[in-house]
Amino acid sequence: MSDETKKDAEEIAAAAASSDKADPPSDPSEAKAAADQESPDPAAKPAPKPAGSVAPKSAGSVAPKPAGSVAPKRASVPPTSRPSVAPTTGFKPLISSRYTVPDVHKIEVAERHGAYKIARRALMAMTPEKIREEVKAASIRGRGGAGFPAGIKWGFLNPGPDEQVYLVVNGDESEPGTFKDRTILNIDPHRLIEGILITCYAIGAHRCWVYIRGELQHSIKQLDAALAEARAKGYVGARPFGKPHEIEIFTHTGAGAYICGEETALLNSLEGRRGEPRLKPPFPAIKGAFDMPTIVNNVETIAAVPDILEMGGESWNKLSRLSPQDGGTRLYGISGHVKKPGVYEAPVGISMRDLIDEYGGGMLHDDRPLKAVIPGGSSTPVLRPDWKVDAPKEDHPLHKWHGMSEIDVPMGVDTYRALGTMLGTCCAIVMDSSVNMVEATRNLMRFYKHESCGQCTPCREGSGWLVDTLQQIVSGKGSVQDVETLAEIANNMMGNTICAFADGTAMPLLGMVQKFREEFVEAATKGTPLDVRHDSSTVDLFEGAA
Predict the structure, then answer these.
(1) Which of 14, 119, 208, 342 has the most CB within a 10 Å radius?
(2) CB 226 within 8 A of CB 210
(3) Which string of DSSP letters, residue by residue, matches 461-480?
(4) Helix (H) and strand (E) counts for the chain?
């Protein structure tokens, strides 16, 4: 990494970390049920049956092996044995390029640094068809968790003569470990508004709602203030930039329900209904908000549209290391046991090792090595650095990384799916050797039990059973059979509910049990001592040592 790139990364992280200290890292569902999940393509569902994370390696394993899976094998690969590949030399941030500009949330400052320039050109000099072509060429995969290409999603719209098209932006960031979208809302809300104006024009929409998690009060205030400034300038309203294409933008505050990150639950909440997912089909692009064709996209996805048009879709796509299938740059979040937690922009396709070592500054404690990392919000199955990729066949999508550590695989939607996990929200939770994985799993499952909307029996009952069984295990009242019971409950939850919340609960549990089975077996026979019921840094904090 060049000194210039390091400086950019450090400045972005510092700005992001200081922008919203009142809000802990958290997003909803990719469960994932996240923002971009509405596609009719089954591949877009964010929680497919894992193809490697929960596959057994022996007869004593806990889950059936899916056909063609990549079963990572135990290996003597030290977590830091391979040098990190430095990020692109001279890389300049795009979506976060104004993060270090003082007061850039104010329209006069934002415009001095290029805000609304691309929107003006798009609405006055480009056709909607041309904009859609550029976004499709960019191959921007949905940044909310599901990873479906935004340009293809926009193409699903086919409104009738009496139908209006709506745009809904998902800012209900509630996924544990995820805190990237709020940096856009807090620091540079005019970038999002510019992206909304372009997108509304491109898809023929005149109304947009930005649904924001209720706890993000600072984000809501920042966006409302920015919208008031844009309306005063005439950019939002009857004739944006003089174009006779009315665009109105509204903020809508959620009430803190994680499930409302799932797009159809979000739409129900927006309409004043109970926040529960809808059966699909019909998909929102056919019948969405108020029974009208609706595109639901994540905050980061929409905020990237101006950069795509400025560079051109193909050029933006090529910034990625996984071009052309997974294009551009994206925001990466990193939290947990690293020296420099924060939000960083980098090309799509850096490795988890790059994210931890080069951007996150390495492990927080030199004497506590990396034990595990949850790659994209809590709904994504865990990676273990001492497990290797097993992809000997040349036609396998991960063959290039055969024999390498899981954390050396490029971070992409398709590569991580092939690895048996998901990229999700691209916000990693790093855990060092002090973490007890059984207790970490119990903590996560308690969250999912609390957040289940209760509409589907397998999810409502299964999430509770997982917590009860884990409680038995950690208290020393369980048995080895309880470890098998965890996997059985989780497998019965997957694929049997209206939305992907149950899958997003079951998959991380199955990954934990598969990759740290020895800890679960030990806990089942001995329990977990009180001194590991919390991460040691938390214990130190309460004891006044931190």
Answers:
(1) 119
(2) no
(3) HHHHHHHHHHHHHHTT---H
(4) 20, 10
Q: What is the rounded distance in angstroms from the CA atom of residue 55 to the CA atom of residue 46? A: 18
String of b and e for 299-323 (b: at least 16 CB within 10 Å)? bbbbbbbbbbbbbebeebbbbbbbb
Task: List the beta bridge partners of residue 372.
Answer: 431
What three-state secondary structure class fits 191?
A: helix
Measured in Å, how far apart are the chain's first and last C-alpha atoms? 31
Contact 305, 401 (CB under 8 A): no
Q: Is the pLDDT of residue 404 over 80?
A: yes
**Spatial separation of the C-alpha atoms in residues 344 and 336, rounded to whole Å:** 15
Domains in the chain, start-ordered, CATH in brackets?
A: 3-81 (no CATH), 107-316 (3.40.50.11540), 329-432 (3.10.20.600), 437-543 (1.20.1440.230)
H-helix or E-strand spanning residue 251: strand 248-253
Of 485, 484, 483, 437, nearest to 462 by C-alpha is 485
pTM above 0.85, yes or no: no
Rounded to whole angstroms, the Cα distance separating 340 from 425 reads: 19
For 63-111, write each residue's pLDDT tens digit: 433 333 444 443 333 333 333 333 445 689 999 999 999 999 999 999 9
**8 A C-beta contact, residue 512 and residue 523:** no
Side chain identity, residue 349? G
Looking up tokens 């994985």 gives 437
Cβ atoms of 229 and 107 closer than 8 Å? yes
* Backbone φ and ψ of 346, nearest 5°: -155, 165
Task: Record the tokens describing residue 26, joined without a space.
Answer: 């958290």
How many CA atoms, within 13 angstroms, populate the side-chain half-sphere of residue 394? 0
- Is omega for the bond preceding 324 within 30 degrees of 0, making it cis? yes
Closest by CA position to 523, among listed 435, 439, 431: 439
- Long-range contacts of residues 106-111, Cβ cutoff 8 Å, at least 24 apart: 106/229, 107/190, 107/226, 107/229, 107/230, 107/233, 110/188, 110/190, 110/191, 111/190
pLDDT tens-place string over residues 440-472: 999 999 999 999 999 999 999 999 999 999 999
The length of the chain is 546
Reference 351, options 147, 6, 84, 94; nearest CA is 84
Residue type, 338: V
CA-to-CA distance for 110 and 104, rounded, in angstroms? Answer: 5
Instruction: Quote the CA–CA distance of 384 and 393 in Å, as a whole number.
Output: 22
Give which of 107, 314, 295 is closest to 200, Cα–Cα: 295
Q: Within a 10 A sphere around the Cβ of 537, how many other Cβ atoms?
A: 17
Under a CB-based contact definition with an 8 Å cutoff, are residues 58 and 74 in contact? no
